[in-house]
Write a sequence for this structure.
């Protein structure tokens, strides 16, 4: 674990993106953009490790958000095997750098001093000014261009504690925690882990970067991604929020299972909740709906059964999605979500034998044959499962284009009744048979 810390706006997120080889952390000229610990895997010289991006630390500030960011950064320092103190080579040594260096000297683990924004390497000797911080040799780099990065990564790997080489990566379930702003996503993740892993604030939009947090549960590797809240595009006016939304949508596309948090105190699912759920469903991710803040609901006027039934009637695809009525504040039913994540991930990767698929298809066609095409019978001759994650079936017919959408929905519902695939979308592909 390599933690990247420093005062605001020294280029930590740019360096983080350089280290992992992609633009995952949001980069902006304004200080204070990164607020949470942001995990990602990197590789150098045959060694695999996590890099942790942190928010800009302002030592001595009593502002609530500054305190929260400082707490997150120090938590990353506590977990790290190697610490990188990133400083701004253009500005020279800063009093905040000196305060941070003093804190890190007491950390009891290797600290590498990284002087960023040295864009004129190797001709610029300005990094030597940072010997005054007392952290040993300064490592000059330009995170934006990559200059000096190779030498720095060699030094990082050389600082790792001796350990056995990691075994082959086990399969893991990537879980995206999604929803509108301020429905309690970060509180929910913190409750699952039993500690403050992400910053929680009543201010909507506190989470901006998707934040990866691994968890081992009943022999399964789960990687939780707490995402920025998704709101209607018409309400997204800030460029920073816009890029947060883009990253969240990318996380949804990459997820195995999406946990959609909705606010129980609103009484029902709102259009924006459903739009986010449809986004995950269309991307092929498994889906679980967590109705958060259920402890605030008057059970006499709105029961869990009524809430779930109403959602399924208004939005039919939600009839196949499990609901959890929970409270991140009290912990009520939060652990139930972990069991459902494992179940939905298994359903999403479930494979049905071809004879069983054809048996189910035959029964459905016998009960309700497809409509004729120009006076000729439409025959569904054969079916097989051609993929998983999500389950995908190919059905072969003599007139594939003549089968109406209503009949495809009939077959879809019939497959659901037979195998459920709870929480997972399924795909039916109608193909032409050779002897059509």
């Amino acid at each position: 674990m390599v933690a990247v810390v420093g005062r605001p706006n020294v280029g930590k997120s740019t360096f983080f993106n350089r280290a992992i080889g992609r633009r995952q952390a949001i980069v902006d000229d304004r200080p204070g953009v990164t607020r949470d610990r942001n995990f990602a895997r990197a590789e150098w010289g045959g060694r695999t490790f996590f890099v942790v991006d942190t928010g800009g630390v302002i030592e001595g500030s009593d502002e609530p958000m500054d305190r929260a960011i400082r707490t997150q950064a120090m938590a990353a320092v506590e977990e790290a095997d190697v610490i990188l103190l990133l400083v701004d080579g253009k500005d020279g040594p800063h009093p905040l750098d000196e305060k941070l260096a003093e804190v890190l000297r007491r950390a009891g683990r290797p600290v590498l001093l990284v002087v960023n924004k040295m864009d004129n390497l190797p001709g610029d000797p300005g990094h030597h000014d940072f010997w005054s911080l007392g952290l040993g040799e300064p490592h000059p780099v330009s995170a934006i261009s990559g200059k000096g990065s190779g030498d720095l990564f060699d030094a990082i790997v050389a600082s790792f504690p001796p350990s056995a080489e990691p075994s082959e990566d086990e399969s893991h379930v990537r879980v995206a925690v999604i929803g509108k702003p301020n429905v309690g996503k970060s509180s929910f993740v913190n409750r699952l882990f039993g500690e403050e892993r992400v910053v929680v604030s009543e201010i909507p939009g506190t989470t901006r970067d998707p934040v990866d947090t691994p968890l081992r549960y009943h022999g399964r590797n789960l990687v939780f991604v707490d995402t920025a809240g998704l709101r209607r595009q018409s309400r997204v006016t800030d460029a920073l929020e816009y890029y947060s939304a883009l990253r969240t949508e990318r996380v949804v596309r990459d997820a195995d299972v999406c946990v959609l948090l909705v606010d129980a105190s609103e009484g029902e699912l709102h259009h924006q909740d459903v739009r986010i759920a449809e986004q995950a469903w269309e991307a092929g991710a498994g889906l679980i709906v967590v109705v958060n803040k259920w402890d605030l609901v008057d059970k006499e006027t709105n029961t869990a059964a009524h809430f779930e039934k109403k959602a399924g009637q208004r939005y039919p695809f939600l009839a196949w999605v499990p609901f959890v009525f929970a409270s991140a504040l009290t912990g009520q039913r939060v652990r139930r979500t972990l069991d459902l994540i494992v179940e939905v991930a298994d359903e999403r990767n479930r494979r049905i034998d071809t004879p069983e698929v054809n048996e189910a298809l035959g029964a459905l066609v016998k009960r309700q044959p497809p409509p004729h095409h120009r006076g000729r019978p439409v025959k569904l001759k054969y079916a097989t499962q051609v993929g998983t994650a999500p389950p995908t079936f190919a059905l072969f017919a003599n007139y594939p284009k003549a089968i109406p959408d209503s009949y495809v929905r009939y077959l879809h519902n019939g497959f659901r009744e037979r195998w459920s695939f709870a929480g997972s979308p399924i795909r039916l592909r109608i193909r032409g048979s050779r002897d059509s």
Observations:
- The chain has eleven helices and 15 strands.
- Residues 172-348 form a domain with the Rossmann fold fold (CATH 3.40.50.300).
